[in-house]
Amino acid sequence: MKSAEALSLGRARARLARSAPSPDSSLPILENFRTTAAAAGWFRRKALDRSAFHPEFLEEVEILRYRPARRCTLRLRFGGPADRCVYVKVCRPGRAERIARDLESLRALGPWPDLRVPPVLALVPEEGIVILGELAGAGLDERLAEVADPGREVVEAARAIARLHSLPLSCARTWTAADEMAVLRTRRPFLHGRVDLAREGVEEVYRRIAVGAALLDALPRAPLHRDLHPQQILLDGSSGGLVDFDEMAGGPAEIDLGNLLAHLDLYAVYLPAGAARIEEAARGLVAAYERRRALHLPALMIARAASLIRLACLYAAAPGLADLTPPLVTRAERLLAPAELS
Question: Chain centroid to CA 63: how far?
Fold first, then answer.
């Protein structure tokens, strides 16, 4: 084995060992992707297009996202004549088919000059696997870090998101205010254990979100990404690519925008030196989106605050990141002030 190949295999094993405990009884097929050798063997055993995947040239397997007992997203890098990456999603039964169906229904409405979505390369439903192609471009998070004035980047991102929300696509799932509140209800206890947060203050934020969430159910439905954050938006200078449609559902566009803006708030908290530029980018994103589609701004504030609290809960017990929680809650409180919602 060449040293470069050994290094790639070592990196893949290390990443998988760190990220995916073995075994996952709900996702047993994940064992087939624990090493490059195992993954290459899986491709050889399947009746897939060998010219598309070239298992003999598989160089690297990397876990990008893993939710135990639910799903795992891996990036596989092929060298040789393929020289590309593919994305393998390992899911519970039925979910892979839904992801493939949603993406194929979405792509059937295109192409578009301002939006790109990944192609479905293969579906292995009996194993809960869908394989997706790669999209070109750098993540919005990378561009925000690299560019002094990201005005063009936020316009490119806003155009792609507005295009998605404008499509005449009926989603199999819907997402409502009740769903938003259910997520917060299960995570709220993470904030109650924080000595730097007053319990009554947390409860007041939750109460205001619950009262305002009714605004969301009164709004028109659109196809939602449902997990939109800067790393999911790939920019190539002319159009925005959106990836990871695992949670796609129908609902008010304000939920997608609120989640994206809350993640920009997170970046501003984490990178205080760049906070002013990130906050300006957030305002530019909303303005660019509104030039294409109308937004209900009070509902957007509610959705953004809900996402901020969700992020605050997520980081409340995260090693080395728990200090992010209080400023995220503070930002949610500011959004929910009566003057902001009027």
Answer: 15
Q: Is the peptide bond before 111 cis (omega within 30 degrees of 0)?
A: yes
Average pLDDT of the chain to the nearest whole number? 90
Helices 275-290 and 253-270: crossing angle in degrees, nearest 10, is: 170
In terms of C-beta density within 10 A (0-12 exposed, 13-18 middle, 19 or more buried), how is residue 84 classed? middle
Cβ proximity of 58 and 88 under 8 Å: no
Task: Tell the burial category of 247 from Cβ atoms under 10 Å away from its Cβ (0-12, 13-18, 19+).
Answer: middle
36-60: per-residue pLDDT in tens? 999 999 999 987 876 678 888 999 9
Strand partners, 174: 250
Q: How much is the pLDDT for 12?
A: 34
pLDDT band at 13 (very low <50, low <70, confident <90, very high): very low
pLDDT of residue 235: 98
Domains and CATH numbers, the chain: 3-132 (no CATH), 138-341 (3.90.1200.10)
Peptide bond into 23 cis (omega under 30): yes
- Give the C-alpha separation, 244 to 277, whole Å: 27
* Residue percentage of the chain with pLDDT more than 90: 76
Instruction: Collect all residues with Cβ–Cβ distance below 8 Å to 286 and sequence separation of at least 6.
Output: 158, 257, 261, 295, 300
Give the closest residue to 300 by CA, choosing from 259, 250, 249. Answer: 259
For residue 328, CA distances in Å to 104, 131, 201, 216 come to 37, 36, 13, 22
User: What value does the mean pLDDT take over residues 115-140?
Assistant: 96
**Closest of 116, 22, 121, 23 to residue 76, by C-alpha:** 121
CB 249 within 8 A of CB 224: yes
pTM of the predicted structure, to 2 decimals: 0.90
Start-to-end Cα distance in the chain: 66
